[in-house]
Design a protein that fits this description.
single chain; 63 residues; alpha+beta; 14% strand; globular
Length: 63
């Protein structure tokens, strides 16, 4: 699977959570796992979106 690049401007984890549709704790976890790369106030969120999509798909399998 290829990783897409999607760069956004965000001031903090709350802004990133709004962009990604998740809470701040999830953003912090994904940053720790390397799914969100920071370049100052610019963030590459493409891998994070892929991670969230895959996690939601996997969660549906276990319901």
């Amino acid at each position: 699977m290829s990783q897409r690049n999607e760069v956004v401007l965000a001031a903090d984890d709350k802004d990133l959570g709004t962009v990604l549709g998740c809470d701040e704790e999830t953003v912090v976890d994904m940053r720790g796992m390397g799914y969100v790369e920071s370049r100052g106030e610019l963030f590459n969120v493409g891998p994070a979106r892929d991670y969230l999509r895959d996690a939601a798909w996997a969660d549906c399998l276990w319901e």
